[in-house]
Write the structure tokens for this entry.
Amino acid sequence: MKAFTQLFTRLDESNRTNDKVAAMRGYFAEAEPRSAAWALWFLMGNKLRAPVKTKMLREWASQLSEFPLWMVEECYSHVGDLAETLALILPVGKGGGEELPLWQLVEERVMALADWDGPLQFPLVRAAWSTLSSSERFVYNKLITGGFRVGVSRTLVTRALAEHAGIERAVMEHRLMGAWRPSAEAFERLLSEEDDGEASAAQPYPFFLAYPLEGAPADLGEPADWRAEWKWDGIRAQLIKRQGQVMLWSRGEEMIAERFPEVTTLAARLPEGTVLDGELMAWRDGRPLSFAVLQTRIGRTKLTPKVLKEAPAAFLAYDCLEFNGRDQRETPLRVRSALLHKAVAPLCSEHAESSILLADGVAFQNWEDLTKLREKSRERGVEGLMLKRWESPYRVGRVKGDWWKWKVDPYSVDAVLVAAQSGHGRRSGLFTDYTFALWKDTELVSFAKAYSGLTDAEIARVDRWVRQHTVSKHGPVRVVEPELVFELHFEGIAESSRHKSGLAVRFPRIARWREDKPAAEADSIGTVRALLRTSD
Amino acid sequence: MPRPPLIHATPHGLYCEAGGFYIDPWRPVDRAVITHAHSDHARSGSRAYLCSRSGEGVLRHRIGSASPIESLPFGEQTTMNGVTVSLHPAGHILGSAQVRVEHQGEVWVVSGDYKTAPDAAAENYEPVRCNHFITECTFGLPIYRWPDQADVFAELNQWWRANQELGRTSIVLAYSLGKAQRVLAGVDASIGPIAVHGAVAPFMPLYRREGIELPEVETLTKDNAQDYRGKGLVVAPGSVQGTTWLKKIAPNSLAFASGWMAVRGARRRLSLDRGFVLSDHVDWPGLIDAVKATGAETIGATHGHTAPFIRYAREVMGLNAYNVPTHFVGERIDREEPEEPQTELPLG
């Protein structure tokens, strides 16, 4: 625990990539495998399900610190992180507790909490709080609130572990794909020098990600060198058929096979040793349904016949990473497309409404044609185009040059800032989470929340403004005078009965601060409704 | 009829009507009593100033050497319009004072900025008994509990040594007046050479004149930067962050010494390599102890987290507490101390 806390502190403190890698390498070299497995699991961004209710934690902290509950809340709203707030407000720990290895703390002291009813957890949590040092207590709180996130990228963790093990980064990346249970064996397997053929039957390949195209497509050279595809707004996924089993992984590396039975059932008929890259879509009559429909397939714990009927899904395959059990990532896209066709075409032809489809290429002679086609993206329910070089291999991660995403311009409206809330993490204590409204007759109606898009300097100015123009406070939310106007961008619009405005938008973010515009000149709900109609 | 309050908030700042003077006015007035020389408390342009004897040097530096300043040793009384005024150490920076005002048997104390923790570069805070205490509240939340400064300086020394091993210059961002001198007085000067930014340098002789022991330091310039690169410690105001000034002494490790560093989000937001929790303001336990030590039954709270403190003082401590408005926004990192006057960067 001490070693892991030190690692966390070093990672948290440093802004330098090399320092972070060095800290992780040092830790992996020293830690016992069972603890290192857990550390790695957390570093990769995995979270434990919170065994303790945060409401309970606040009450216990209030009781032990002898501060009223409202004061605990007040501190939380200032700090923006419950685990940290509790670590700071509790009486100083006695320290000197027995030194537990990380694995034991996690498995026996944290996960075990889930076996007890709320009030019975109190003595266990209290004992931990009183013996841990303040920085250890913070890490412990992070563990029991399930919100543990270390500020280090997956790429960096992979690099550190690969360097520690003396293994190629791409190999380590592959080994780290998919879900795994932290154990000494799992950790040692990651470090082993041998080829891990069959152990990895379930593992997806690292996804190749595209950069946004910034310049004109003409800069890419000959149109004939490029394949164009529609850019689908679904869930990026890999469909795997190996050893008679079907696996479906999302880009977030979640196993989502059981969410899409119609896809996996059909996938059982793919040739043995096939891995496809593609997009999961809600799909009906040869057309995509909105992302909101697709979400009904993921959000629920149980798939009901009703959901299956209302949100039919399909997997649009656009690349073939493994064929006949052989890794095809080094072969050019031109060849992989042919393999993809071989693998998928037989399934498509049998069913009129197949749930596994070939994502067609977009035919074009020159860049002007393609530019015109791209303008029709919204009508087709796609986000724009993907451009992929015919000769490109399937690379690992986000790499510039061979794959580009060429999205349509986002929707844009000018909205009025009506409320603000303080942010979390590095934005704690600053008002950075904003609610925006649009006009409906003479009234402003809340329309979207947005968090990103302003520079630090602008955030500081808005923060100051919010403090000086607060009309009322509702818990952590400050209602402000409706004065500031911001241009918001977003990707999609859908009807919504859950939103006050009757509309839900996708990926709202701040494009710029319209300091030139008074609130009266902001857009209306009607403007957005009109956009919704043109996109239908 | 109840008497009007002895001191009340006005658009010019805290005003004692009976005595005819303001405390830390933010606009020019006839008579100003100044708690300390930070620029959000000491503004130029008033017709007469009163400050502590040991604070006179830094105040003159801040508001102009020709300003009409009178000074008073700590604890000594003077009379203004029949109102008794005395100054008492606030422990915030050199010469910082609490203002005690007595009139018709009633005693008020205005704390100014203060801290109860020790500081080798400032007088020790002294509690003053009163009926009515107006206290600052910058860190008025229980999450703010300062670590022992000996531990903080041990960490700072260790960080400096570790940087030397990596060939990095150690840069501590600290307010030019007060925090910078506290850091200089607290570090282990035997570790390596120490330099200061041009904004810090003018205060050094003013501190030494008052008997504060500080290590020998040079002002960092283009010509001597080589002597500090990779091994030295440089104390500079926060305003240098993000400027090319820092690049001239690259590679470096950047730390900030401030009470705000107690919260992780604040540390991360500033993109620092290290944050040292070292504040010249009172922390929560200090605030509660200070309030109790005055014996005051009425507490005015100003600057920072006044609302939770007031509620706590009323509901838990059973005191009569209220908010004293300021025209500063409060609650913000860059409001812990005034912005530094921009001095020409010597490395150009």
Remarks:
- Residues 149-165 of chain B form the longest helix (17 residues).
- Confidence is low (pLDDT under 50) at residues 328-348 of chain B.
